[in-house]
Amino acid sequence: MLEAAKLINGTKRALNNLRQKGFDLMLAKVTSFCEKNKINMLNMAEPYGNQRSRKNVVTNRHHFEVEVYNTVLDMQILEFGDRFSELSTSLIENMSGLNPCDLFSKFDISKIVAFSEMYPNDFNKEERGCISGDLTVFVETIKEDDLFKNLDGICDLSRVMVETGKHNTFPLVYRILKLALVLPVATATVERCFSKMKLIKTDLRNRMGEEYLNNALICAVEKETFNKVKEEDVMDRFQTIKNRRGDYYVCLYIYSVASFYFVSFKLY
Q1: Comparing C-alpha atoms, which of 93, 127, 129, 91 is closest to residue 108?
Q2: Cα–Cα distance, 49 to 162 (Å, whole number)
């Protein structure tokens, strides 16, 4: 996730640099290509098109640079900013300060404090003032403990803290760890729900009720879990609820066909 955040910030900077300085380089390449292949090229200083009025004359360079080149890049930069906001990327970068690998060589207290400040509802004013001191004492304490060596990530750090009772000694640090562990799961779950919702609630099925939509979303998002459920167990549960007419295997066949129809057509 940290590498993805770095790539996002690098891409944003590259797009901005391309907008500021890229047109001259591209124009030079186009001019060289046209001269090499003996292709007639427009004079960039001449007016663009057949403009009858002499007011607000637009040159060829202004048209291709401002109205075409910059407009397309602005659309890309705006879309990129909407999908990957500064808040999300800074949240991931600050979360990386909790990295306990290599004997806590990448453990950055300043980033952790900035990460906690992004959750004002989870830490009051007094707790925010104590976080920096607690983190300093925490790092100096666990460096002498062999159990905290060779950790592979914040998951191992939180596990060892619980095993050694350090989560009771440093409750603020453990709360920050829990927030960092919940963040990727919550973000991914929300994205998956919205992606599945676009497939389920289409224009032809935009009047479905909330209960039916919730049930369909659960089946779609937790597909891996539902695939492990045996059809025989589902039929046994229905049979225990109420006696039904018909052969057991006939009902099983009908249920299988209905399940295949629901999964294949409704969700995909």
Answers
A1: 93
A2: 73
Q: 68: which DSSP letter?
A: I
For residue range 176-230, list pLDDT tens digits in order: 888 888 776 555 566 667 777 777 777 777 777 788 777 777 777 777 777 787 7
Mind listing the pLDDT tens digit for each residue in 22-67?
888 888 898 899 888 888 888 888 887 765 655 567 788 888 888 8
Using the Cα atoms of residue 216, residue 220, residue 226 and residue 231 in order, give the sign of their dihedral: positive
The answer to whether the Cα torsion of 178, 179, 184, 187 is positive or negative is positive
CB 95 within 8 A of CB 4: no
DSSP 70: I
Domain ranges of the chain: 2-86, 100-223, 229-268
Q: What pairs with residue 59 in β-bridges?
A: 47
Tell me the pTM: 0.52
Q: Which of 147, 150, 137 shows the shortest CA–CA distance to 104?
A: 150
Angle in degrees, CA 219, 208, 231, rounded to 5: 30
User: What are the φ and ψ backbone dihedral angles of 204, each rounded to 5 degrees?
Assistant: -80, -15
pLDDT score for 261: 45
Structure tokens at 109: 């207290």
**First-to-final CA distance of the chain:** 29
Close Cβ partners of 220 (under 8 Å, ≥ 6 residues apart): 196, 199, 200, 267
Which amino acid is it at 55? Answer: K
Whole-number Å distance between alpha carbons of 194 and 1: 20
